[in-house]
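Shipment paperwork, digital attachment
Item: protein structure file
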Amino acid sequence: MKLVTGGARSGKSCHAERLAANFDRVLYIATSKIFDDEMATRVQHHRDSRPSHWRTVEQYRELNTVINEQNDAQGAVLLECITTLITNVMYDVAGRLPEDDWDFVEIEQGVNQQIDILLAACAASPSEVILVTNEVGMGIVPENRLARHFRDIAGRVNQRLAQSADEVWLVVSGIGVKIK
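Attachment content:
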């Protein structure tokens, strides 16, 4: 498993796609949910930038179901992106509660359950798995409660993924630096 991390607009997606392009077959797992026009534009940009022969699945939960079907040592799985997956799971677990009433212990347990499923699928897959995630710990402390909890949960998830990864890449200004 390879983990590619970096800040927003750092070039991490392009770096991960270059890593995946070395394989005959690529399964691209998109974790975004389209909830407004801006997000629809972003998703379309990503779709347009990928090679047309890559297979795309849009899913962010129970990822073992799609990773396990890619049982091909000549293929790769590229998951874009972990932090979007975390956001979606956070809102799933919280349901319709107002953000002030969110139970962040329960939310983190829900996130970790999905990460456990993902890590087990990555370990069992003969395909190269490439995960993309945002580096969230290099900025200032967020001013609101939800953003602070998100940063903390995402930071802990990123640490788990980096521990499990064979390679970790940090991308800054479009340049990938292998840090593990």
